[in-house]
Amino acid sequence: MNAGRPRAGQGFTLIELLAALLVLSLLALMAYRGLGVVMASRDRIQAEAAQWRHVAAFFTRFERDVQLAAPRGVRGPSPGSPAWLGRPDAAPLLEFTRFAGTGDADAPYRVGYGINGARQIEWWVWPVLDRTADTLPTRYAVLDGVKRFRLQYLGPAHSWNSAWPTAPGDPALPLAVRLEVTLDSGETVVRVLAVNP
Description:
Order of helices and strands: HEEEEEEEEE
CATH architecture of the domain at 62-194: Roll
Number of strands: 9
CATH superfamily of the domain at 62-194: GSPII I/J protein-like
Shape: rod-shaped
Radius of gyration: 31 Å
Structural class: alpha+beta
Number of helices: 1
Strand order of the largest sheet: 1-2-3-4-5
Largest sheet: 5 strands, antiparallel
């Protein structure tokens, strides 16, 4: 018999088959785990991208409102509110009068921003500018997952104040507003926006 020549019909041994199955199962397990990591990373990136889209949309809304700020206060049966009212310890934290758009015929209305107990920044809109004591705003949640929401206002002496107005002689609108938002994930976003008189 010739030892160097394989016999016809000779197959794999049981040990060779088990070794091949073991290698294939290890490769399949590594591929499955790698796919799981890729899928988890994709889900995390999509969630973060959605969060940052919401943050950008909130800042766009806030900037648009500030650009359309109007120097007109609220009239009512009780002492009215100034054109811009920033209070660090009240709800809403900020309320001000803004024009409805860029046209000359647009009537101003009142908007506000605050944070609720569910850690959401809310956009407040009053149905009329001059109102009675029982006129309530409609509140819309515009940003979720907020740990801290802080506003500061730049006065004519170029100093930042946590409230506006600070004194009876202050102008109707501050020069700028500084907005600081800290998210539940730990990131802090700060924007400084000029207030258009």
